[in-house]
């Protein structure tokens, strides 16, 4: 066989499918009605798209909106939609669908986890099929950024009833099937409006156990494992020429979430005691084998506006005991510690429970699955403490919502965030973000642990994966196999 013939044969058999493993399985498949980042991990930019979207470097670029115009007063955004965009069921995506999406987000009975981000939108008007206008009650310097979140992807009324099990989007991949407890399969959508991806199909497999995750990668049963849950194994993969290890940053502030409305956590001194009882570095070393950056507030260290406030809640067990005594709890107290499945929570929770015990706080560990966590902790607010990584981008604004699950209610902070949202001057915004970080750190709203690292293992031939995670997503639109 000639060299040319061999090359042709090789190309003919070029690999075009991929198997991606991740630890958490989505509770359902509607990114617009749940706080579960695992939904976006599978569907964001693959199946669903928004008016704008995040790229791997964190930039925000046009998505289903080809362009937009902003009024001089900042109260009106007019979006021009892309031509000839269809949903995977063949129906046309137009301005009516955009209006439907945001009317649903803003409805009184909305289940959208980030509804507050869009609260400034007072009206969504269909100008014509390709043009939609949003009117705001006040300027919002974050609007285009917020529209890139998975919570704002465009959905259609025709498919909304079955979206949780049969998602229908506009992305380059369409949903094929979901074998619950095992995997989700997507495949290339022939009618996609944009560039055709190199991959023809992808399977997302769910492997929750770190030991099983290691075995699956070593056996080459999967091609990629995103959010690899056993960081202690990474040196072994780095030494193996079959694999590449990607280590990047995420937007995931990993915190000891505290129920601020439940006694005794409604006492600032008790929350401060929690903060000083925690040895962040011991948690990073013990649960994450050194991968992670300590944080002292709810803000990503790679953000230019970040300020290091870790010194204000340094590990000091004696100070923690003194604060508890001052709060009338010299003998300590008992509480619950709900731990969802991720390794950072389960492993970190064991370490934190031991640290809290040293200052007299007994934390009963309750391991829960993700759906239970959403029901009991996030929606039900029936918890004392929990550990979770908030992977949404630049989301300090959640502290301005007193109904959010940790129930922090500070009118001064709410006013500050309202001012931040209506401010467009970069220097002023930076100053306001610094003040916001200081307020929640001083109020010890939660125990701020570390910024979650993005850890992934992939076969050497896989190219185009995001190293960093500016939002929780496994964007396959630019992924391919090396020749």
Structure description:
- The chain has 483 residues and is an alpha+beta fold.
- The protein contains 13 helices and 19 strands.
- The protein has helices at residues 3-12, 37-43, 95-106, 143-146, 210-218, 234-238, 268-277, 280-288, 317-326, 343-357, 370-379, 411-421, 426-442; strands spanning 17-22, 52-54, 60-62, 65-70, 76-81, 121-128, 131-136, 173-179, 183-188, 201-206, 224-226, 243-258, 293-294, 333-339, 361-367, 385-390, 447-459, 462-463, 480-481.
- Strands 1, 8, 9, 10, 11, 12, 13, 14, 15, 16 and 17 form an eleven-stranded mixed beta sheet that branches.
- β8 (173-179) and β9 form a beta hairpin.
- The radius of gyration is 23 Å and the shape is globular.
- The chain starts with a helix and ends with a strand.
- The model is unreliable at 3-12 (pLDDT under 50).
Question: What's this model, at a glance?
Answer:
The protein is globular and about 65 Å long. 27% of the residues lie in helices and 24% in strands. It has 13 helices and 19 strands.
Secondary-structure topology with pairs:
Blueprint: H1 3-12, E1 17-22, H2 37-43, E2 52-54, E3 60-62, E4 65-70, E5 76-81, H3 95-106, E6 121-128, E7 131-136, H4 143-146, E8 173-179, E9 183-188, E10 201-206, H5 210-218, E11 224-226, H6 234-238, E12 243-258, H7 268-277, H8 280-288, E13 293-294, H9 317-326, E14 333-339, H10 343-357, E15 361-367, H11 370-379, E16 385-390, H12 411-421, H13 426-442, E17 447-459, E18 462-463, E19 480-481
Parallel strand pairs: 1-10, 1-11, 14-15, 14-16
Antiparallel strand pairs: 2-3, 4-5, 5-7, 6-7, 8-9, 9-10, 11-17, 12-16, 12-17, 13-17, 18-19
Helix pairs in contact: 7-9, 8-10, 12-13
């Amino acid at each position: 066989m000639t060299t040319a013939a061999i090359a042709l044969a090789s190309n003919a058999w070029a690999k075009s499918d991929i198997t991606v493993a991740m630890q958490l399985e989505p509770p359902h498949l509607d990114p617009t009605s749940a706080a579960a980042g695992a939904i976006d991990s599978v569907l964001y930019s693959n199946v669903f798209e928004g008016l704008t979207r995040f790229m791997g470097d964190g930039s925000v670029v046009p998505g289903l909106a080809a362009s937009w115009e902003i009024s001089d007063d900042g109260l009106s955004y007019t979006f021009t939609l892309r031509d000839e965009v269809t949903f995977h069921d063949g129906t046309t995506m137009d301005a009516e669908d955009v209006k439907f999406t945001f009317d649903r987000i803003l409805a009184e009975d909305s289940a959208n986890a980030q509804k507050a981000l869009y609260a400034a939108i007072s009206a969504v008007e269909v100008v014509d099929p390709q043009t939609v206008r949003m009117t705001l009650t006040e300027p919002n310097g974050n609007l285009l950024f917020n529209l890139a979140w998975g919570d704002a992807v465009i959905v259609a009324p025709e498919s909304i009833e079955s979206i949780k099990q049969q998602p229908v989007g506009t992305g380059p991949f369409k949903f094929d099937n979901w074998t619950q407890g095992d995997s989700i399969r997507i495949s290339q959508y022939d009618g996609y409006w944009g560039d055709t991806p190199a991959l023809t199909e992808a399977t997302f497999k769910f492997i929750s156990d770190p030991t099983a995750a290691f075995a699956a990668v070593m056996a080459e049963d999967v091609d990629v494992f995103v959010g690899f849950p056993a960081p202690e194994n990474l040196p072994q993969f780095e030494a193996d020429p079959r694999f590449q290890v990607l280590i990047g940053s995420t937007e995931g502030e990993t915190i000891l979430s505290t129920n601020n409305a439940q006694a005794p956590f409604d006492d600032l001194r008790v929350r401060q005691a929690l903060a000083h009882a925690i040895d962040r570095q011991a948690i990073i070393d013990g649960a994450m084998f050194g991968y992670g950056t300590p944080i002292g507030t709810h803000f990503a260290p790679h953000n230019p506006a970040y300020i290091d406030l870790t010194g204000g809640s340094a590990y000091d067990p004696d100070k923690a005991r003194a604060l508890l005594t001052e709060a009338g709890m010299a003998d300590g107290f008992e509480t619950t510690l709900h731990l969802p499945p991720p390794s950072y929570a389960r492993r970190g929770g064991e370490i934190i429970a031991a640290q809290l015990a040293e200052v007299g706080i007994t934390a009963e560990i309750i391991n829960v699955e993700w759906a239970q966590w959403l029901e009991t902790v996030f929606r039900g607010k029936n918890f004392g403490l929990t550990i979770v990584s908030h992977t949404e981008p630049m989301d300090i604004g959640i502290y301005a919502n007193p109904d959010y699950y940790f129930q922090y209610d500070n009118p001064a902070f709410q006013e500050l965030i309202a001012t931040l949202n209506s401010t467009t001057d970069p220097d002023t915004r930076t100053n306001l973000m610094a003040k916001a970080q200081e307020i929640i750190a001083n109020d010890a709203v939660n125990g701020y642990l570390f910024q979650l690292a993005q850890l992934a293992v992939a076969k050497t031939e896989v190219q185009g994966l995001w190293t960093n995670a500016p939002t929780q997503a496994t964007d396959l639109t630019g992924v391919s196999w090396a020749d």
